[in-house]
Design a protein that fits this description.
about 260 residues, alpha+beta
């Protein structure tokens, strides 16, 4: 899907979040790396800085933001205590973006001086952390207010500041479990409240363009097959849409996508 859209150096960042962990009214965002030399890309840094800047300045959430942890796990036999240690050692509420990275990003004036699309690889690799959680019987239990979930996609246009939360469904499998629905509603509500606060405080901004971040909704994107190029049916929030129209909406150059919100 990513190759049909603008690239990250032309204003659009698309990024998944490997794990969102919510336990005891505390929320953690986890990026999992399976190699010690795996790098943190510019897109990941921009997204995680946005998350930190939005959450850490909130005064109205019912959940305590613990931060973002970027951890490396290479062995399925890693103990749960070691995982907790890795998270505690790497968790942070501040993400800084080095000048070397900032210099490569577009300031949204004139023409982008770099064009490059990097495909997010998380969906193509096995999660060792997920196996560790399952082996230790740690999984979403909404009755206990425990969530171990992932965010399929966050789309951010860092020129306009608009961002969305996107759930992707493929091969005609359009069902979402009740537990997953509860998680989605929780995150959607959080982003909505954080965005409202940010419209007043103007604190969370893109570090290159200066655009103020504004959340414009949660959306379900469904393909009859695996992607927009091989699917004869595409749906956005249950409404059939053409590939061309979808691309124009997902680039987030405007708020036109909100016409599909909540349907």
């Amino acid at each position: 899907m990513r190759t049909n859209l603008k690239d990250a150096y032309s204003g659009l960042i698309t990024q998944d979040v490997d794990f969102v962990i919510i336990i005891d009214k505390r929320i953690y965002f986890i990026e999992e790396k399976n190699r010690s030399n795996a790098r943190i890309g510019p897109a990941q840094k921009v997204i995680y800085k946005m998350i930190c800047d939005l959450f850490k300045n909130s005064k109205n959430l019912d959940y305590e933001f613990e931060g973002v942890a970027i951890i490396n796990i290479e062995n399925e036999q890693t103990s749960l205590n070691e995982v907790k240690k890795l998270i505690n050692e790497s968790i942070r509420k501040e993400i800084e973006i080095e000048n070397e990275i900032l210099n490569k990003l577009w300031d949204c004036r004139g023409r982008p001086f770099i064009r490059k699309t990097e495909v997010e690889r998380s969906g193509y690799r096995t999660s060792i952390l997920e196996k560790i959680f399952w082996n230790n019987k740690i999984y979403t239990r909404t009755k206990d207010n425990i969530y171990i979930e992932r965010i399929h996609w966050l789309f951010l246009n860092y020129c306009t500041g608009y961002f969305i939360f996107l759930e992707e469904q493929t091969c005609g499998n359009f069902n979402i479990s009740d537990d997953r629905r509860r998680f989605i509603k929780l995150i959607d509500d959080m982003f909505s409240r954080l965005s409202e606060e940010n419209e007043r405080s103007l604190y969370a901004r893109n570090p290159k363009s200066g655009a103020v971040y504004k959340y414009i909704g949660y959306y379900e994107l469904a393909f009859s097959r695996t992607n927009p190029d091989n699917s004869n049916k595409i749906y956005l929030n249950g409404k059939e849409i053409t590939r061309e129209k979808l691309v124009s909406l997902l680039n987030l150059d405007s708020v036109d996508i909100v016409e599909y919100r909540g349907k």
